[in-house]
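Researcher: Go.
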Amino acid sequence: MATYLNPYLNFRAQAREAMTFYQSVLGGQLDVMTFADQGGMGVPDSEADLVMHSALSVSDSVQLMGADVPSHMDTGGDISNGSISLSGDDETALSGWFTGLSAGGSITVPLEKAPWGDSFGMFTDKYGVDWMVNISGAAGS
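Model: Structure:
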């Protein structure tokens, strides 16, 4: 059996919107389960339709998961998801993902030739998630 490492993002009442956006850019199959689907799971009725778990399966090697954090769960402040890194040698796919996922967000490092020979860029998407894209040996912009 294979082993996978899957990024799992947390949101406050934006998981469905964010995961649907990611699917619109990355493609793939999105499966969503709400708290209501699982009998409420102890969340207030007003949050029953929030996402308890979602999985976006883009390919055998790309899967992104996400959920809404219910209001009663203390996160110690703002939700921080770290950074998601996309990398490989498919310049067309990765540069397209950079463009699509950064739409409505803010680019912190433009996708261009890096000192190590690859193309690299960073951005924060419109949901506050930080992304890094590294294209191996790409010509750059």
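Model: The mean pLDDT is 89.
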